[in-house]
Amino acid sequence: MSDSSTQQECTTQTNLILETPKMVRVILFNDNYTTMEFVIEILQNIFAKTYDEAVQITFDIHKEGKGICGIYPYDIGEIKAQETALAAQKAQFPLKVSTEPI
């Protein structure tokens, strides 16, 4: 049995310093082999874009040579880039994807 007179109260004070996560842009690059339909599918399935958003980004990629798929915290952006590269490889497309810090 514990006696209340022998119990000690323990208080811990912790100072947490929260930093905003590092953000990255995920970028797709134009090539002459990857179909626009595949790029639209990637934008909808991996980047959760609406059909209209996906078409607009696809046209940007086609016209400008590259297009921004989104801006994400570092970890999420890297995972989305890896998922995109894997999907392109499985579909046998040379689609290039990269991340760049903001």
Task: Kindly list the characteristics that best describe this protein.
single chain; 102 residues; alpha+beta; three-stranded antiparallel sheet; 3 helices; 21% strand
Structural features, described:
- The protein has 102 residues and is of the alpha+beta class.
- The chain is built from 3 helices and 3 strands, in the order βααβαβ.
- Strands 2-1-3 form a 3-stranded antiparallel beta sheet.
- The longest helix is centred in the C-terminal third of the chain and has 17 residues.
- The radius of gyration is 23 Å and the shape is elongated.
Topology of helices and strands:
Elements: E1 23-29, H1 36-45, H2 51-64, E2 66-73, H3 74-90, E3 96-101
Antiparallel strand pairs: 1-2, 1-3
Q: Unreliable segments (pLDDT under 50, ≥5 consecutive)? A: none
Radius of gyration: 23 Å
User: What structural class is derived from the secondary structure elements?
Assistant: alpha+beta
General form: elongated
Strand segment count? 3
What is the mean pLDDT?
Answer: 92
Q: Into which percent range does the helicity of residues fall?
A: 40-55%
**Major sheet attributes:** 3 strands, antiparallel
Order of helices and strands: EHHEHE
Give the CA-CA distance, first to last residue: 59 Å
Bin the strand percentage: 15-25%
Can you list the strand order of the major beta sheet? 2-1-3
Please outline what is shown here.
The protein has 102 residues and is an alpha+beta fold.
